[in-house]
Design goal:
The structure is a homodimer. By secondary structure, chain A is α+β, with helices and mostly antiparallel strands. Chain A has a domain at 17-88 and 131-195: 3-Layer(aba) Sandwich (NADH Oxidase), CATH 3.40.109.10. In chain A, 45% of the residues lie in helices and 15% in strands. The first copy, chain A, contains nine helices and five strands. Chain A has helices at residues 10-16, 31-41, 61-70, 76-79, 95-107, 113-128, 132-156, 169-175, 205-208; strands at 53-58, 82-89, 160-164, 182-191, 209-211. In chain A, strands 1-2-4-3 form a four-stranded antiparallel sheet. In chain A, helix 1 packs across helix 7 (132-156), helix 2 (31-41) crosses helix 7 and helix 5 (95-107) packs antiparallel against helix 6 (113-128). The radius of gyration of chain A is 19 Å and the shape is globular. The N and C termini of chain A lie far apart (45 Å). Strand 5 (209-211) of chain A pairs parallel with strand 1 (53-58) of chain B.
Chain lengths: 215, 215
Amino acid sequence: MKTLNRTANFYDVIRERRSVRLYDPSVKITKEEIKELLGEAILAPSGTNLNPWRFMVFTEPAIKEKLLPMASGQQQVVDASAVIVVLGDMNAYTVENADKINQRAVDAGYMPEEIKDRINNSVQDYYGSVSEQIKKEWQMLDGGLVAMQLMLAAKARGYDTVPMLGYNIEEFRKEFNVPEKLVNILMIAVGKAREPGFPSVRLGVDEVTYWNGNL
Amino acid sequence: MKTLNRTANFYDVIRERRSVRLYDPSVKITKEEIKELLGEAILAPSGTNLNPWRFMVFTEPAIKEKLLPMASGQQQVVDASAVIVVLGDMNAYTVENADKINQRAVDAGYMPEEIKDRINNSVQDYYGSVSEQIKKEWQMLDGGLVAMQLMLAAKARGYDTVPMLGYNIEEFRKEFNVPEKLVNILMIAVGKAREPGFPSVRLGVDEVTYWNGNL
């Protein structure tokens, strides 16, 4: 697969990925490369493989300028090469969507027809019986999975990122007429750092880990 | 840093990671290696770097057996070398926690004292004013980020994983006396595949991507 015929040390990628807020505005990323990057990101898993993720990609300077007031003037939304807003499609949690995806798996010879039918039934039972609120939580989880893989895949290509929750979701949805079925998950700026991100600390593993049920 | 002095091709890792449900029960992973793995996972970012993630790790056979009925008899919770339940600490979204983490950044010379104070104030304003429901959604997002990095880090070490939502959270919480402040995010089985995972399909990038505000 062309997009994956590359190399990058996984451990360098996870160690060198840092949140970067100052970008070189002269750097452009081609649409083709952004598509490759998204293709790598969506190798991430999602609940019942329903692929709920959707991506609004902003690369045109005039459109990125519209994001600036929504993001409290955080300059990275303009200076970064691309701003990718990760959304989740609430209609992904339906039998129609499950059938669409899994029919392709059947056609590719990855899945027997009867497994597809069984998954359809379980999607009906499982997703059909939970509240919109729980589905929203699952969207956030699935969105987090794909967003992490996206940020790592960007770093593997030599790009920096910053995940952003600090923007006005209501204004964003109004400006771009985002339909109700799409929920906002995370905004990610992608580009080349003008200045390196700050190192940061973490709570230690022993502070956040509990063994064999001992809390 | 010892734990990162290793190599693995990032592109192999993201391409070869698949959800695996059949594990070799004879494979043990040492506590030391699980701690290294978690140390790699928590290099992931989190909202305001509040590190809300917590991990309940199950490796003892007798304790893993307790998970079996909660997980509708899915054998991977017993056969996998470890089951890691990712949780989120709702108390992470407090000034106390922000100050604890950022004081360490100040002490390490990564952060000026006045930035720490400014973050404390913004945590007070930002997290102090939102509902528990929104915080839960942020937990799911932050949990998704760290869970993805955990699954990739496991693959980089040659282990397989499967993310699981299909277990009874109420029974789990009762059995292990999980305090209210910890919310369940995702269960992940980690081990060596007895049989390879199935290949799977994804919606195409063009089906899930919108450019420059055109939905």
